[in-house]
Structure formats: C-alpha cells, structure tokens
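[agent] plan:
  1. take the single chain provided in the ticket
  2. run structure prediction with default settings
  3. attach structure tokens to the ticket
  4. add a short note for the reviewer (M.T.)
[agent] executing step 1
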Amino acid sequence: MPRLLCITAHPDDEAGGFGGSLLLYRNRGVETYVTCLTPGQAARHRGNTASGEELAKVRRQEFARSCELLRVTQGEVLDYPDAGLDKLDFYSVVETLVRRIRQIRPQVILTFGSEGGVTAHPDHSMASLFATAAFHWAGRSNRFVEQLEKEKLQPHQAQKLYYATADFILPDRQPVSLPPATATVDIGEYFEKKIEAFKQHITQAPLFPLFEGRMRKGERVEKFHLVAASTPREIAYETDLMAGVVE
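[agent] step 2 finished; step 3 output follows
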C-alpha cells in the first residue's frame, strides 16, 4: 500500500491543517501516519488541567481520538517541549525523524511551511525545518549511518514533500508570507469530519468558533505547496498529492 507521513508540532495540528487529506487518502487505501513532535503542554488553553504534565496527558488522549476519527493508520506524539522546538539540537531531532521515515518508508510527506502556517507559530516553523532536512537526509547512506549499521534500517527517499498552505491570512497577526499553492485537494466529502476531529481537542475549545468560522468561510479544500520531488520536474498544478507516485 502507498504510505503518507504527516509531521506536525502540536496535538490538533493533524486535524486543523491536514485532517481532510488524511481521511481522504486513508479511504483511498493509503496508509497514513502522523508524527507530532510535542504533547502541547505549553498551550494557552489548558482546560481543567492543573499542570503541564497533566495537560500533556490529556492532549495525547485528544490526539488519539482525533486520529481515530481520521482513520490514521498510526499516530504518535513525541516528547519534545512545546514552545521550545527552536531551542533543541537540530541534528538530534532530524535524526529521530529520519528514523521514522526509514521505518515507515512513505512515498509522500506533509508538514508546515517554514513560515509557520497562518499562525506563524515558531514550533510550526521548526517542524517544517526538521521535516525538510529529514526528507532529504533519510535517503542518503552517509547520514545517520548508525541507523543503517546497528538498527539494520535502509535509506529511504520519499518521492514528494509538501508544505501546507492557504489562500488567506489571519487578521491582527504578525506578517506571514505563505508559499503559493501548487496543489488543491477537494475535501468536501470529509469537511464535517475534519471539524469533528478538531473538536476532539476539548482543551482547545476556546479556539473552536475561530477555527470553524474560518473553515466555513472558505472553499472545502486543503492547499499544499510541492517543495521537493525525487525526480526532477516542471511545476504543474495538482489535485492529487499521490499523483505520479510509484509504489
């Protein structure tokens, strides 16, 4: 089966940024994976939790429920610090993501743009930078050689890397320059399920009106920018992220 890996920063990113596409491609027979770098323990909205540790535990549960609704093949939440990805050792985080790519062996990888998405969140930017390096390095036999020698993994070159993007910006925010869309995925059939998945993140309930209101104002699509491909090509507008993928 073809495989798709989505690399995010926080629980709720999988639904808010990628939920429609995750469900659409799973229903088309694609195995879907989500690797979330942090458990979101520094979130402004904290529900009824009394500590960052308790919030992280609850948000992991919310993530699991969201992934279940989106029929994600496998979702995982790592233990990196929320609001602290920019302070981490770059090479070490990329090593972790390269290991995931070599284990899962996806044809397509999705993540944020380096601007940090419409919210310009620094963690989103760092997730983009980590994932981009991992996309390129996972296929090279001279990167993280110990994974090949000791763990018996094999290099894996994913075929396409996409950044999520949008055709709008949020008002009253810091400037953000989004990558131009090169692919539009029609998620109309899965639009309501995407909103439902986002609402599994109960601790983030104060964001529900903003999120749902913004979603219902626009087209029922998710937009992406093709950043890199394993075979040289001219840019062409797409409506299918798996177009041209060889299993």
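[agent] step 4 note for reviewer: The longest strand covers residues 221-229.
[agent] ticket updated
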